[in-house]
Amino acid sequence: MRLAATYSFNNGERVVTEKYPHLLREVRTVLASINEATCKTKESLESTTAGAVFYSPVALNRAFKQEFIERCGWRPVRVPCDYPTTFYLDDYKIRRSNRGAFREMDFVKEKLGVEVQFGKYAFMVYNVCAKMTIFKNLGHIDCGIEIVPVKALVEEMSSGVSYFEQFVWDLETRGVSNIDIPVLILGVDAADGTHRDPPSKHDRSAAIVPKDRPKRRPGPSPRR
Question: Where are the domains of the chain?
Answer without folding.
Answer: 2-81+99-193
